[in-house]
Amino acid sequence: MKITRREFVQISGATAAGLAVSGLGFDLWPVKSHAQMLKLKTKYAKETLTICPYCAVGCGAIVHTSKKGDGRVINIEGDPDHVISRGSLCAKGAGLSGLSENENRLLEPMYRAPYAKEWKTVSWDWALTEVAKRVKKTRDATFTKKNKKGQVVNRTTDIVSVGSAALDNEECWIYQALMRALGLVYIEHQARI
Amino acid sequence: MTNHWIDIGNSDCILISGSNAAENHPISFKYVVKAMRKGAKLISVDPRFTRTSSKADIFAPMRSGTDIALLGGMIKYILDNKLYNKKYVSAYTNAPFIVGKKFSFKNGLFSGYNRKARKYDKSTWAFAMDKKGVPKMDRGLKDPRCVFQLLKKHYSRYNTKLVSQITGTSEADLKKVYKAYTATGKTGKAGTIMYAMGWTQHTVGTQNIRTMAMIQLLLGNIGVAGGGVNALRGESNVQGSTDHCLLWHIWPGYLKTPRASNVSLAAYNKKWTPKSKDPISANWWQNYPKYSVSMLKSFFGDNATKAKAFGYNWLPKVDDGKAYSWLDLFDEMYKGTVKGFFAWGQNPACSGANAGKNRQAMKNLDWMVNVNIFDNETGSFWHGPGMNPSTIKTEVFMLPCCVSFEKEGSVTNSGRWSQWRYQGPKPLGNTKADGDIMMELGFKLKELYKKSGVFPEPIMNLKWDYMTNGMYDSHKVAKEINGYFLKNVDFPKKKKSFKKGQLVPSFAYLKADGSTSSGNWLYCNSYTEKGNMAARRGQEDAVNKIGLYPKFSWCWPVNRRIIYNRASVDLKGRPWDKKDWVVKWTGKKWIGDVPDGGWPPLGSLEKPNPKSKWAFIMRKHGHAQIFGPGRADGPFPEHYEPLECPIEKNFMSKERMNPTAAVYATDADAYLTCDPRYPLVGTTYRVVEHWQTGAMTRPQPWLLEMQPQVFVEMSEKLAKLKGIKNGERVLATSARGSLECTAIVTKRFKPFKIGKNVVHQVGFPWCFGWRWPETGKEESANLLTPAVGDPNTRIPETKAFMCNVSKL
Amino acid sequence: MPGKSFFVDTTVCTACRGCQVACKQWHGLPAEKTVNRGSYQNPADLSFVTYKLVRFEEVVVKKKLKWLFFADQCRHCLEPPCEMTADDPTAIFRDSATGAVLYTANTKKLDAQAVIDSCPYNIPRAAKDGTLAKCDMCIDRVENGLLPACVKTCPTGAMNFGSRKEMLALAKKRKAKVKGAKLLDAGDIRVIYMVTEDPKLYHKFAVASIGAFDVSRAVAMKRMVRPLTDLTARL
Fold first, then answer.
1. What total number of domains does chain A contain?
2. DSSP E strand boundaries for chain A
3. Which residues of C touch B703 (CB under 8 A)?
4. Is residue A39 part of a domain?
5. Max Cα–Cα distance, chain B, nearest Å
6. Is B762 helix (H, G, I), strand (E, B) or coil?
7. In chain B, N or C: fewer CB atoms in 10 Å?
8. Strand, coil or helix: what is B232?
9. How far away is chain C from the Cα of B431, in angstroms, using its nearest Cα?
10. Cβ separation of A114 and B328 shorter than 8 Å?
11. What are the φ/ψ torsions at residue B369 (nearest 5 degrees)?
């Protein structure tokens, strides 16, 4: 996460000529070499296309991912060939690299036990196994085969779900399939609010 | 959106109301500016002067919650001045339909109202039918019982003087707005509406939008370039997630969630497949069983046999007449009937109306699963403000997902364009793609139910083969959503044959016999044997050069960029707008956009071409609905005050509020109207610098730098009255909660004159919450808002409520 | 006049602040700790780590409310007073190809306040150690055929960049189309703003000075530079 453009400069060994480089990180030359690095993207940075994850205009962005260093994002900017946005991005979109390269991100699954005052870091396998057990326990204990009128309903109203308009289409589809297969009827998301 | 972003550039007049596009859909302004440079007028109607208003030719301030009054006045203006497109209205809308004798409107109520049940008997609004079972019509629009004449009568009350009293907009401003916008009724001119949650988040939200849709129909603005009814959707994939129906009432592709009374697949299909007796009506939903059965085949694969009704009985049913919406969900949770909760990529502790109720409700859960990129106020509710962890039993599983560009998949924008995005870096740290988390959870559940469990069939039979090399594979799901031929199928009429295993080219080939699958019929055509259509990058425009870019990404349905485009032409198939045309009949075929069906033009209304179809193919009777008999709160929109409002009496009728609004009654649901403690109209909104609750943007330093704190905007007059100085911290309160925030004293809010009274309005951004920034002092404006819903959608009324602001 | 220029059409700026963030993103500049001071404008001012800032002003002109946005940045003067004040080409120099006025780490050796005071647009800002920073025209991007980050990201065409000739032509064309439009100091600087109101309503330093044009710009600027006391008083 801490890869900087300066490290890129070190990788490239470029741009030694010219005026003094102070090592402050914001002076001219490291930045200059950064642009050259991007130009030589096939060698130093992977270029992938994405669509901005915020509002639904659906602007295009180009993600530059380091091929060396730690393989993290070194730059994200508008995609000039995107026919809607033509390279433009608003404040949120222009700062997209600040979303992924962000020290506030959650990096491990965490668990909070009943009445606990703190989180505990847990493994994925433990977390998902325990979630599955909770789902099964609640579902099996509350499953309604018939409603008060005696009609077959095969559902549980004791487990509910909200989310998400932030998921990809494919994820939305499998998520609703899983939830409906479990018998959930309280399935809602951002479109309702 | 009926149209799409680029198409805004084709407009002659853009009305931005119930939206602040410059701040919340900033890149849309590329096309607003483009249109304006060609001479288009921009109108901004908003309680507050916004960044959008700063660019407008006309700014008209109006009190929150009075849109129907303002737009109803526009309908009257159109009718009084005969500014409607008569040919369009007569041919393509239900304006000529004769309404049955039982329909009436008196004292603010439509016929059939049951005050005890707070519901209408909608059968009193039915159309009069001829002997064949087709609605009776007067294409001349003169019959006193025809929709057009009833419309005239209904809106005759909406004169500018009365409208001005209600909205607080000056009569001069109203007239400016009406004149500029209705000029687009002229043939060849197009007006568009850009709206968002400022229209939907009301107890009359659905009717707000219907009022504008009716205006668009009267002006002939639907189906044409630069026109349409354009909902500016707020999340990158809220369109797609709605299409795939992460909603209680619908299944993927807007199929209905089965009701308990739909006791079999046959009964279900029969109930929800509309039947028209009119041979000229395409009545597209007649194909319903093809879509429902194909969807079940995608759910359950080979296990979905005909003998087992394709698995229909494995899926849950909802009780008839009961709602399971967001507001109901949290109401139940608050009452303690919910044990397990998934909050997946959503932050209801801040996003829900009456957020304090939601937070209290979470204490009643046994367990919660919170999936997000950052810790948020939902996952951490148990140690939030006012919470004592040692008394809260809820177990919480916080699962870290990766960001969108650390995985691969598609999202559908507001213009219905499904766009593929790729993986840049790998998921950071131990984060996972949501798809991987879902798949693994599914496998774990299947494993458990293999041993034992209640009603294991749907879980065990669920098709769950979307992995490649041990990882979730979005391409496999995308293909399933599109659908496959499950056996060799011939279409003799279309002279086409397909082999088992091939991808279905479009929904016209889906079958109701189990020989095709399609997870979502609307997306059938998105991933075909030609490849992944959403990933296309073609730069060429279509022949009509109106910015359709048909080979760039893919849009539903069947890549049609402007829907209802059969209404963009006259009866002979000639475009209303000769320059910016959408489709055109060459005498043999349609050119331009993908037409709304390939049938030839109607020719004439008296003797329509029997091979043709009415323009609005998704409607049972083939006509757009100026009269909407399916809505819960009336076939014509009527002005009612918000549930919480500053006036005792609705100037329009005896009914103060929407008589069918969904209200809740727990001790957390206080509603106070005309209470001296809460004299100010409050509203909520967003800012460009943060997104939704800010859960993704508040942890980002660059964005927090620009908008670091929650604020309340108020007029200079109100600030003076309250002794509040610009920039000082103040306390905002409502019947439900309180919020400390920074005062922005601004010229951009002005007091309204409502009737004889001065009414002050204030506004709050709802993008804050205590978890970020780390000071813990910036809270959600939804602590103030009421959990009360529109009767059709149950979307909460967070855009108009009563509150107060005082010095700390 | 060769080299590059910006044309900033404030009449279509929506203050989405894409430019402000794009600048920070490209230059890897940290965020500042800010508070809401009763305005959307934040940070409050340019700084050593904020080269581009959208300024917000609410004004009433002829009874009509206007919300003015001014995307402030270094003007890259044709005859930069800061360069003259520094008088050290290893610290402040002009790029010969683009005309960009560039600061290096050697600005640390300069009298920072003198350089700041010399700027007619109040742009340069010093770090604690005296090093100066400001907009560098994204010289690295420009040299590699890319648009400056702020221009690339702008949705409405408020920010434009190209050869000076092109930008002057564009400015002239836009000016002719917008009622009451004026160009600010177009003959003297490489960042040409177009406004419709009194420039002082947008920002105190939107224009360098009014009425100094009876002498050549360069001479006027030199005059402004030399009697530093006068300039300080003006600031």
1. 2
2. 45-51, 60-66, 73-78, 110-112, 120-121, 144-146, 152-155, 159-162, 187-188
3. 21
4. no
5. 80
6. strand
7. C
8. coil
9. 24
10. no
11. -115, 120
Strand ranges for B450-573 from DSSP E: 467-468, 471-472, 489-491, 496-498, 527-528, 531-532, 554-555
d(CA B745, CA B153): 43
Rounded CA gap, C115 and C111, in Å? Answer: 7
Structure tokens at B576: 């209303």
pLDDT tens digits, residue range B385-436?
A: 999 999 999 999 999 999 999 999 999 999 999 999 999 999 999 999 999 9
CB C49 within 8 Å of CB C131: no
The subunits that touch chain B, with at least 3 C-beta pairs less than 8 Å apart, are: A, C
Contacts of B260 in chain A (CB under 8 A): 147, 149, 151-153
3-state secondary structure of A32: helix
**How far does A33 lie from chain B, in Å, by closest CA?**
21
Examine the domain organization and report whether A136 and A78 are in the same domain. Answer: no
CA–CA gap between residue B690 and residue A54 (Å, rounded): 9
C15 contacts in chain B (CB < 8 Å): 22, 51, 54, 688
Instruction: Choose from C11, C14, C19 for mutation: most chain B CBs within 10 A.
Output: C14
Task: Confirm whether A17 is domain-assigned.
Answer: no
Q: Is residue A116 part of a domain?
A: no
Instruction: Over range B263-275, report the average pLDDT.
Output: 98
Give me the domain span that covers residue A84: 46-100
CA B706 to chain CA centroid, nearest Å = 30
Over residues A138-151, mean pLDDT: 98
Closest by Cα among A14, A2, A86 to C143: A14
Average pLDDT rounded to a whole number, residues B611-639: 98
| Burial category of B197 from C-beta neighbours within 10 Å (exposed 0-12, middle 13-18, buried 19 and up) | buried
Which chain B residue shows the shortest CA-CA distance from A146? B260
What is the CB neighbour count within 10 angstroms for residue B502?
Answer: 16
Kindly list the residues from chain A whose CB atom is less than 8 angstroms away from the CB atom of residue B268.
none
- Write down the pLDDT at residue A39: 56
Pairing of strands B417-421, A144-146: unpaired
**Joined tokens for residue B27:** 């890149």
Contacts for B596-605: CB closer than 8 Å, 24+ residues apart = B596/B223, B596/B560, B596/B563, B596/B564, B596/B565, B596/B566, B597/B282, B597/B566, B599/B282, B600/B573, B601/B569, B601/B571, B601/B572, B601/B573, B602/B91, B602/B280, B602/B571, B603/B571, B603/B572, B604/B571, B605/B90, B605/B91, B605/B139, B605/B571
In angstroms, rounded to a whole number, what is the distance separating the alpha carbons of residues B250 and B241?
11
Tell me if C164 sits within 8 A of C171, measured CB to CB.
Answer: no
Per-residue pLDDT at A13 exceeds 50: no
Residue A129 lies in a domain: yes
Across chain B, how many H-helices and E-strands are there? 20, 33
Q: What is the pLDDT of residue A16?
A: 29
Q: What's the predicted TM-score (pTM) here?
A: 0.95
Residue A67: what pLDDT?
85
Distance from C-alpha of B189 to C-alpha of B185, rounded to nearest angstrom: 7
In this structure, the answer to whether residues A128 and A185 fall within a common structural domain is yes
Say yes or no: A81 contacts chain B, CB-CB below 8 A. Answer: yes
Establish if B744 touches chain C: CB-CB under 8 angstroms. yes
Which of A173, A92, A101, A162 has the alpha carbon at shortest distance from B402?
Answer: A101
Q: Which residues of C touch B743 (CB under 8 A)?
A: 38
- A89 and A130 fall within a common domain: no
DSSP designation for B624: B
Contact B458 A182 (CB under 8 A): yes
B208 to chain A nearest CA, in Å? 16
Residue A165 near residue A56 (C-beta atoms within 8 A): no
- A96 and A130, same structural domain? no
Q: pLDDT tens across A43-66, in order?
A: 678 899 999 999 999 999 999 998
